[in-house]
Amino acid sequence: MFDSLSDPMRSLLSRLAFLVAGALVGTALYALNIGGFLAVALAAVAFVVVGELYLFVTGGESL
């Protein structure tokens, strides 16, 4: 299914996947009282940065 999408759509979905993963990690940290509400935002931003680095290193190849 992922191969049938255009390159811009695959890129968008990859970035969205990293954002969702970061939000989930941040929510888990918040639920475990490891960080405050700021943990959700920081984890989401951190995962987006890691995702951008991943896409840069792999030459823009999607997940």
TrEMBL record:
Transmembrane domains' residue ranges: 12-31, 37-57
Protein keywords: Membrane, Transmembrane, Transmembrane helix
Lineage top rank: taxon: Archaea
Keyword Membrane: yes
Name of this protein: DUF2892 domain-containing protein
Lineage: Archaea, Methanobacteriati, Methanobacteriota, Stenosarchaea group, Halobacteria
